[in-house]
Amino acid sequence: MGSGEKIMNLRKQLNLTQRQVAQAIGVTDQTVSNWEQGIYKPRLTPAQTLALCQILNCSLEELVAVTSDLDSTATS
């Protein structure tokens, strides 16, 4: 399971929309959709990372574990 899928699972467990997550971290809902589809990987500022942790109700360690999966599967 890639990081986008994990982010999507965390989001859905909390019954959040892509728009709600996007607004909380200052990106578009299309950006969140692209992450979840594996089109792009999240590139967040520290403040956005903290906001994502808060809205997904997860620790930084959990989020790093979620997003590091995609780093190991870099695209050409």
TrEMBL record:
The name this protein goes by in its record: HTH cro/C1-type domain-containing protein
CDD domains listed in its UniProt record: HTH_XRE
Entry keyword DNA-binding: yes
Keywords tagged on the record: DNA-binding
Molecular function GO terms recorded: DNA binding
Keyword Translocase on entry: no
Domain HTH cro/C1-type: 7-63
SMART domains recorded: HTH_XRE
